[in-house]
Write a structure and sequence with these properties.
This protein is mainly α and 51 residues long. Helix content is 76%, strand content 0%. It is built from 3 helices and no strands. 0% of the residues are buried.
Length: 51
Amino acid sequence: MDVPLWLALIVVGWLGVKLFRPPWWLVLVLLVGGYLLADSQLSPVIDTAVK
């Protein structure tokens, strides 16, 4: 069974918020920060570090 990546991320994110109960501002900061870093000049560096 193939699960789309966007669906897996939504499920994991929802479970993380439900189980760990972080503040909503922290969730928003991580989402916006990740989005901005993915489109920045640091993305090749982050990509090689993750792989």
